Amino acid sequence: MSVLDRLAERQLVVVTGKGGVGKTTLASVLGRLLAERGKRVLLLEVDPRESLHQALGTEPSGGAMVQAGPDLWIQNLKPEVVIEGLVAEKVPIAYLARKIVDSAAFHQFVEGAPGLKETALLGYAYRVLAGRRPKADLVLVDAPATGHGATLLAAPGLLAQAAQGGQLGEMAAELAAFLADPVRCCVVLATLAEEMPVQETLELLELLRSNLGIRADLVVADAVYPELARGAAAGPGADLLRARRRLNEEELARLRAVWTGPLVELPLLALDRGPALIAALAGAFREADR
Asked: DSSP class of residue 228?
């Protein structure tokens, strides 16, 4: 079974990695590829700066679902807005719901409750999958960078422990159990074939395994320098490319010495962020996944 076949069997795919390694680009590529397989895919972004629309060539989400292709949608989420929506759902009298979310006590609770914001974001994805909102077959989360990505995955369990029962605790515990199910959920790590990103990837793999009992399903090395053909012209430019390629190979070997799961290499391409880059990388991913 190919990597994409395995990912297509999941309901929730969380993409994380060190900042600046192409995490959002990878999430866009996977979203496109999984939608091509007939899955209704919702790509969720938690970064307020909104980058997914640039990669996929759509208008900014601004909190709304925006179609980015056949069977593919994007949405930018703000945890405060999600939590306020839950209050409005549980308190059907609009005036009372507004009084609650405008109160200082409510804002202190939202800021102080451990893991509440992160749980709200993942809970939104869970509700989409349950069909309580416009239904998707698969939700792909462009998660925060490395450490914050691990915090996101740990949040429901922490909130369940802190709440110690009650409606909030039960909801958090149900979500934690969902995230721990490898049949329904998985984690994909993005990295660069360079020393610091690889080191951080190795540390995150261990953190997920030891603290959360999660084994990543896939590691993707972005922007790998091409191997020059034999007989390529010599010169400073060619020497620099060969040196960068050697560095990539050394770091990929270090990664493979520890990580025995699927590893996909995506090439460095001279394209600006946008639909053309996503299409080219999707083609490269298909080739690597054969």
From this structure: P
Q: Work out whether the CA dihedral 265, 269, 272, 278 comes out positive or negative.
A: negative
84 falls in which pLDDT band (50, 70, 90)? confident
Question: DSSP string covering 9-41, please?
Answer: T-SEEEEEESTTSSHHHHHHHHHHHHHHTT--E
Burial group, residue 43, by CB count within 10 angstroms (0-12, 13-18, 19+): buried
Whether residue 114 is predicted with pLDDT greater than 80 in this model: the reply is no
pLDDT of residue 146 exceeding 70: no
pLDDT recorded at residue 133? 58
Question: What is the CATH topology of the domain spanning 3-193+270-283?
Answer: Rossmann fold (3.40.50)
Q: Is residue 41 very low, low, confident or very high in pLDDT (cuts 50, 70, 90)?
A: very high
What three-state secondary structure class fits 67? strand
Whole-angstrom distance, CA of residue 112 vs CA of residue 119:
13
Handedness of CA 102, 163, 79, 174 (dihedral sign): negative
| Residues in Cβ contact with 51 at an 8 Å cutoff, skipping those fewer than 6 apart | 24, 45, 273
What average pLDDT does the segment 11-31 reach? Answer: 94
- Distance (Å) of CA 95 to CA 92, 100, 105, 109: 9, 9, 17, 20
Tell me the pLDDT band of 131, cut-offs 50, 70 and 90. Answer: confident
CA angle 219, 186, 116 (to 5 degrees): 115
Instruction: Name the 3-class secondary structure at 110.
Output: helix
